[in-house]
Amino acid sequence: MKVTVYGSHLCPDTLYALNVLKSKDVDLSFKNISGALGDLKEFLAIREGNPLFDGARKSGGAGIPLFILEDGAQTHDIHKVIG
């Protein structure tokens, strides 16, 4: 299974998720939104108008980590990725 993770190396939730995924030998691509402008632009395009981020917008959060599965499904729930 290939998973794309949008997050930041400055975010403890992202770091936790990356460690869990690596321990499960998940094939992942990490998009560091705080380290690469291109990754940030991709993330913002995904986030814009996406109801998955309604809670994050209301609470002032960024909505990371974001997991995009091979089939295009998007989630913030690591258990949906590894489960």
Write a short abstract of this structure.
The radius of gyration is 12 Å and the shape is globular. The chain has helices at 12-23, 37-47, 54-59, 78-82; strands at residues 2-7, 27-32, 66-69, 74-75. By secondary structure, the chain is an alpha+beta fold.
Notable traits:
4-stranded mixed β-sheet, 41% helix, alpha+beta, 83 residues
Find the structural class using helix and strand composition.
alpha+beta
Global shape: globular
- Rounded to an integer in angstroms, the radius of gyration calculated over CA atoms is 12 Å
Mean pLDDT: 96
Question: Any overview of this molecule?
Answer:
With 83 residues, the protein is α+β, with helices and mostly antiparallel strands. The chain has one domain (2-82): 3-Layer(aba) Sandwich (Glutaredoxin), CATH 3.40.30.10. 41% of the residues lie in helices and 22% in strands. It has helices spanning 12-23, 37-47, 54-59, 78-82, and strands spanning 2-7, 27-32, 66-69, 74-75. It has a four-stranded mixed beta sheet with strand order 2-1-3-4. Strand 3 and strand 4 form a beta hairpin. The mean pLDDT is 96.
Layout of secondary structure:
Elements: E1 2-7, H1 12-23, E2 27-32, H2 37-47, H3 54-59, E3 66-69, E4 74-75, H4 78-82
Parallel strand pairs: 1-2
Antiparallel strand pairs: 1-3, 3-4
